[in-house]
Amino acid sequence: KLHRSQERKGNPLKCDYKTHKEMKWTRSEVNKWLNPLFRAGYKRRLEEDDMYQVLAEDRSEKLGQDLQRIWDHEVQRATKELRKPRLTGVIVKCYWKAYAVLGIFTLIEEIIKVVQPILLGKIIEYFESYDPNNTRAFHETLGYAAGLSLCTIGLALMHHLYFYYVQRIGMKIRVAMCHMIYKKALHLSSSAMGKTTTGQIVNLLSNDVNKFDEVTIFLHFLWVGPLQAAAVVGLLWNEIGPSCLGGIGVLLILMPVQSMFGRLFSKFRSKTATLTDSRIRTMNEVVSGMRIIKMYAWEKPFAALVSEVRRKEISKIMKSSYLRGLNMASFFCASKLILFVTFAIYVLLGNTISASRVFVTVSLYSAVRLTVTLFFPSAIEKLFESRVSVRRIQEFLTLDEIRKNTVALPQDEKDAAVEIQDLTCYWDKVGYMSLASSLLSSILGELPAEKGVLRVKGQLTYAAQQPWVFPGTIRSNILFGKELNPQKYERVIRACALKRDLELLPDGDQTLIGDRGATLSGGQKARVNLARAVYQDADIYILDDPLSAVDAEVGRHLFEQCICGLLKNKLRILVTHQLQYLKAANQIVVLKEGHMVAKGTYTELQQSGLDFTSLLKKEEEEQQQPHHDTPTRTRTLSQNSVLSQTSSVQSIKDEDQLPAEKVQTFAEETRTQGTIGIRIYAKYLAAGANIVVLLAVVLLNIMAQVAYIMQDWWLAYCSNMTNITTNGLNVTKELDTDFYLGIYGGLTAVTIIFGFGRNLVLFNVLVRCSQSLHNRMFSAILQTPVRFFDINPIGRVLNRFSKDIGLLDSNMPVTFADFVQIFLQILGVIAVAASVIPWILIPVVPLLLIFLYLRRYFLRTSRNVKRLESTTRSPVFSHLSSSLQGLWTIRAFGEEKRFQKVFDAHQDLHSEAWFLFLTTSRWFAVRLDGICSIFVTITTFGCLLLRDKLDAGAVGLALSYSVTLMGMFQWGVRQSAEVENMMTSVERVVEYTKLESEAPWETQKRPPPDWPSKGLVTFDQVNFSYSADGPQVLHNLKAMFRPQEKVGIVGRTGAGKSSLVSALFRLAEPQGKIYIDGVVTSEIGLHDLRQKMSIIPQDPVLFTGSMRKNLDPFNQHTDEELWSALEEVQLKSVVEELPGKLETALAESGSNFSVGQRQLVCLARAVLRKNRILIIDEATANVDPRTDELIQKTIRDKFRECTVLTIAHRLNTIVDSDRILVLDAGKIHAYDEPYTLLQDPTNIFYKMVQQTGKQEAAALLEAAKKVSFRSRPSLSNGHAVTADGNLVIFETAL
To answer: What is the DSSP-derived secondary structure letter of residue 420?
Structure first.
């Protein structure tokens, strides 16, 4: 999708508008290039290829670079002048010219609005002094009527022209900002990364930049508003003298009140934003760590965590919604209050009211009212909001950037080198990483040197310890922007042991990898990661423990073929824990507690008698030195190292498919089609209130509208009462002031009460809808099987929680309330016009039909465009978050520019959709206003035709109402379309509330409280697949794990090791039966089952929150128990050093601990749980031998009474097990004591041991021998006593 060819051929829709000249915004042009799109959109669903290419001047790259240039210049000036750089100034400087010109449109539009009432007055005056014989007056009035009609048409065109251009400028600013934010994110230093989080950067891109789209619309009203108000005051004075000041006074009181609302609103907005940030961050962790959360049965504490943040967020949203409701109500009631005050003063001053005066006044007020009470305060509100956003973006843009220290080698020089002397570095606030990784990160330039010398000569390349892949094909991941050289590519793939994997994938190296590489197993990801580094032509290769994620056989292959093969003439810096490789190193550096304790060759170190040799004791038994053809130049740092600091998003390790590691590709994101059914509306509203409340809301709304119309009708009635025609002469009659004013005042009061009441109630209901939908969606997400998270990228799930819920929280209530209000007003206008001139209904009917057809025609395309807009937005975020995870890799390879280009391409695609969204909505609005101006014209000339039968008050009422229809009708229809578009968000959320859920957490059948007391696990003919239609990964498994037995589970990658664990934990439902102490696991609740088994997972996951919450989220344990658990895993000293001890909040996903330490935290969790069954899933793949030994020792001591199942890559961790289960392609290949297995050369286990090298194999055999002479467990094979004492005999093949 990214590199779509510039010319998109073969599409009948592609009308070229390469030049901007063709885009002059006249009616014929609007018809010309949008019509084919609407025709297509009406017939079928629109796809990305139907969109027009983005204009050259709207391209992300161009816009971003223009703004970046001015910003860089400003930063330089600010540094000189010792002040902060100002982002606002930069935006103004870049865009003021283009934007200023648009002010003229606004001015003309507002002038027309002031001229209209004057023409209206002239027409009504003719009716007041109506003389059938005066033809001159009649012709004059016809002229006025024509003027009035032309005004409405002019208004229709100017308004939309203006809106189209301002929104386009808004889009440009937003796109340019996004470009700059992404560019900055690629250059953040490690200290800056500590000050921001992925969630925050995503929020800047998703919410903050959207403020630019909104603020540009209203800014011009800041100066047009006051001008227009001044003109109106002059005209009013002319019409009704000083009484107008009363009304103006009310207006002036309302303005500061509304801008105060705006201020308060922006205060709530920024508080809500921080709460939303933290909710999305928590969601991000929950979704990424879902596998672990499920295995630990920790759904409830996380649900509590999210609902707590959500509760705070909702209470803020509720407050700001009430403010908005009051704001809207004050807008609705303002005109009525103003008229009441004006006319009350006018009449009390002893004047008589006439129809022309009344309706000119009404129209003038309504002309200025919009500007003064809506646009002007909106401009202020949006200005404040965008200031908050600009400040947030500015803070981000001024964070520290990284400075590189590599020196490129001159062509002739061949010696790459890394020179380090007396280097001291600090990790500030971020916490720290392991030594080896810290050293590598300072060589990469990620960790700045405090003092000492660090010189790097030559081009670097880097393979991170936590393998990183980005969404795209496997090939693009390996080439990483370099040209494809087939021979070299082939060599790299063979050296990195990827050849066979690629042959087994459906599309070979063109297979798409999803978000976070979820389609690849951990080992495959590690090898792709290594292949990427090897394919680059660099001088220095920095390899951070690339061998830990693969099994011994593959590890040896990588070491010999790749590190000592392909790269043999390069400088390599390798971190490893696997001591068998040290012999091959030219120089070994041993690090301990922040210092280098030794360096030298293997023999030198052996003689120096350091504790290093204690790590290497086994080696001495080996007689034969391995003979290498070439001396290699590896440096090995034997110490644990750690993942890059970006928010660690869990890679989904699925090493469990068949030997041909299957790759599941992602499901397309669903885009719903067709109209939004009434059922969705019903679901939405029912979520927030019951039927009684909804009926009450409907009644309130109708009452408010009736009171609103009655007040105007009463005015017209009064003006007619004063002006009675007798015998062709106008007689002015005195009115009973108290009676008329009393009723007038009463109606005004009723309007105000109902107006405010209905809004508050409506907003309350709508926010509650959003609240309950979020809760339902979240609980559905928690209860859905893990498979869902494997096939849906994280961005897609988060998009529903951030964007869609965001819309329902803030935009939906306003739009919905607005739509209801306007819809009722439109009905009111038509009703009033019809009561005056009944035949007006004749033209209204066909106009309505055209209307409905247009709306349906438009909505089909518009909904498609809107959906395209939201689906093209997702890749922008996905690209950002995957870039942040692979930040170090991208920078080490110097690929920032290319990633920036890809980002720009994603942005351009989104701009195409956004641009269509702007133009299609204007296309529609122009046509709507066209219809309205026809309605106004018919009404005006109709009144003149029927001049004999009508009185002035009726004409005034009908005309002034129909003129207000102009903007209102099209706004109402656009709002209805908006509501319907937002309903797609409701639909998306509702779709997630109906996800299939896994088995219940608790069932009627509860196991006994002390279950499992023995820990006997039996698999009885178990078949397992991850989804109903997926391939089977375990076939007919029969096995028994006896109480207190330690069982090692081995097998090549994809043999089904992890699937066995998934079946045991019921991450998907297995077929067949699994018994634990005689209880069938599938019959009890998931929590009952999962809480009784402990797991130490492959990827240690820590969650943001305190250390205590990480160990014991349910608060079931005392402090003493927590400390003693930490002591047992030797973390007590580390935690005691933390500022808040157990209460210390961890950084995002615990990135301030090394992988080894995180693994120990997971071990501490298991120690605390005191369960009878412990499963260890490759837990020691990423840790150094010392931590590994510590974990093994703890397991032997603490879990002596338990049944322990260990899945391992390192054979030394499981060779001392009681028995070993060898899996192959999902079937049991062998299951026996290790020593027995090693007697059979045909056995897979035997072959695996041989592949570790001679001396390692001998050591393993020795260890296996020892185990074989230990005492056997007392349980006879094949029999188990169940809880009720019955003897069960299993038919078993063991």
So the answer is: E
